[in-house]
Structure formats: C-alpha cells, structure tokens
C-alpha cells in the first residue's frame, strides 16, 4: 500500500507525479529543484543557493513524512556541470553526518527541468 506525501512547504508537482510516496516504511522523494514553494519561482544566483533550496525542499517533504535527513539511505544528485560538484557537495554535506551519510550517486546531465543546474532526489526509511 502506498501513501501520497504532500506539503505546501515544498514546490507543487509540475507534472503527473507526487512530491513523495511512502510505501511501507520507505519514502521515495521526487527530484527537487531550486523552486521556492511560496512563489513558484526559481531561486538562482549561484550553485550553492540553488543546492540550498533543493535541500530545504527535501527537508520539508521529509518533515511532512515524519522523518529527518537521518532517515535518508540513498540520494541521487543530477548536475548540469560537474565542475560545480565541490560547491554542491559542500552544501549537501552540511545536512549529513559524514559517518552515517546515505549512499549516493552524482551524475552530470545535459539538461534538467526548467534548465536548472542541480536536482536531488532521495529515498528514506522509517
């Protein structure tokens, strides 16, 4: 059985998907980009600002599901330019304890939704 997880504190889906699905004790969070949930506008400026907004959106969804970043077991990071990885990693890493951080892959892609520079999805367990 699956439960749809939604919160007004993260951007509303812009297609046929949900912010997250809780299946059993596993939470699957859709990829988050740097959209401000209050305005629906892209947050831009530099890659650190974009990554911070992605993480805030992910945190809001985790919170709605009664979880924290400590529950995250897997992250996927999609970047437009791998040269920005160290800056993305700096922001991302601030949300995790290095010793218990989740598994992760980082993939450079040609384009992302709304032509943003970074998108992050996560899987968490209760």
UniProtKB/TrEMBL annotation:
InterPro entries recorded = RidA (IPR006056), RutC-like_sf (IPR035959), YjgF/YER057c/UK114 (IPR006175)
Q: Which family does it belong to?
A: Belongs to the RutC family.
A single Gene Ontology CC term: cytosol
The protein's matches in Pfam families, at most eight in alphabetical order, are given as:
Ribonuc_L-PSP
Enumerate the PANTHER family for this protein. Answer: 2-IMINOBUTANOATE/2-IMINOPROPANOATE DEAMINASE RIDA (PTHR11803), PROTEIN HMF1-RELATED (PTHR11803:SF58)
Q: Which Gene3D superfamilies match?
A: RutC-like (3.30.1330.40)
* Gene Ontology molecular-function annotations: deaminase activity
Identification of the protein by name? 2-iminobutanoate/2-iminopropanoate deaminase
């Amino acid at each position: 059985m699956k439960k749809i997880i939604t919160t007004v504190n993260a951007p509303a889906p812009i297609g046929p998907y949900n912010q997250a699905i809780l299946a059993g004790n596993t939470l699957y969070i859709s990829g988050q980009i740097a959209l401000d949930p209050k305005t629906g506008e892209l947050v831009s400026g530099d890659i650190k600002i974009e990554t911070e907004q992605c993480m805030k959106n992910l945190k809001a969804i985790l919170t709605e599901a009664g979880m924290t970043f400590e529950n995250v077991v897997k992250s996927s990071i999609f970047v437009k330019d791998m040269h920005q990885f160290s800056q993305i990693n700096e922001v991302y890493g601030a949300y995790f304890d290095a010793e218990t951080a989740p598994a992760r892959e980082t993939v450079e892609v040609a384009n992302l939704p709304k032509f943003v520079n970074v998108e992050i999805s996560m899987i968490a367990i209760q």
